[in-house]
Amino acid sequence: MKAPLLFVGGTLNTSRLSLEPLTPGHAPLMYAGFAEPDLYRWINAEPPANVDDLKLRFERIANPYAPGGELWLNWALRRTSDGVYVGLVEATVRPDRIVFLAYYVFSAHARQGFAREACTAVIEHLWRAYDATEVRADIDFRNVPSRCLVESLGFARRARNIVTTLRGAPSVDCRYRLRRRGPPIR
């Protein structure tokens, strides 16, 4: 039996990014990026109406202790060279140590490797700090850049797709899975 999940906070760093634990104070700094309609092309969400709307969302998800014994881990991605925020990575850690990963990179910063760099750091953190056994990502079939990203990180596409809707229209999500290599950390 696994021990209950305990939050292991802190900033993660990569060669170009500082992954800061998300707080409501990030809302005004990240609003312009989250207000971009194109960011929501493949996800069932709408841009925040204003900074206060985004702040309320961040207040809900900034507390790591979520219902059902899960942990919600969220990092604001800040480029260290100039302090600009370029996106967000979210990880939901279930009590069984299976993690669901999601990420946003703002349009002005897309296709520069920030998602790959940040996701790599988060996945390594999940293996070490949370004894994660598997990381999953559900991605709209039409979101080719995101599918390519997770495949480049070693995720394998599962045979089972998830039939869903996107803004009322039929859609199909692909489920990807990355299993930890090697023995669990003790």
Walkthrough of the structure:
The chain has an eight-stranded mixed β-sheet, sandwiched between helices. With 186 residues, the protein is an alpha+beta fold. It has helices at 27-34, 51-62, 114-130, 144-152; strands spanning 12-13, 17-21, 71-79, 85-93, 98-105, 134-140, 156-166, 169-179. The mean pLDDT is 92. It has one domain (12-179): Aminopeptidase. β3 and β4 form a beta hairpin.
Key features of this structure:
Aminopeptidase; 186 residues; eight-stranded mixed sheet; single chain; 4 helices; alpha+beta; globular
Describe the protein's topology.
Blueprint: E1 12-13, E2 17-21, H1 27-34, H2 51-62, E3 71-79, E4 85-93, E5 98-105, H3 114-130, E6 134-140, H4 144-152, E7 156-166, E8 169-179
Parallel strand pairs: 5-6
Antiparallel strand pairs: 1-2, 2-3, 3-4, 4-5, 6-8, 7-8
Helix pairs in contact: 1-2
Summary of the model, kept short:
This protein is an alpha+beta fold and 186 residues long. It is built from 4 helices and 8 strands. It has a single domain, classed as Gcn5-related N-acetyltransferase (GNAT) (Aminopeptidase), CATH 3.40.630.
Domain module count: 1
CATH architecture: 3-Layer(aba) Sandwich
Distance between the termini: 13 Å
How much β-strand is present in the residues?
25-35%
Protein structure class: alpha+beta
What is the strand arrangement across the widest sheet? Answer: 1-2-3-4-5-6-8-7
Mean pLDDT: 92
Q: Count of helical segments? A: 4
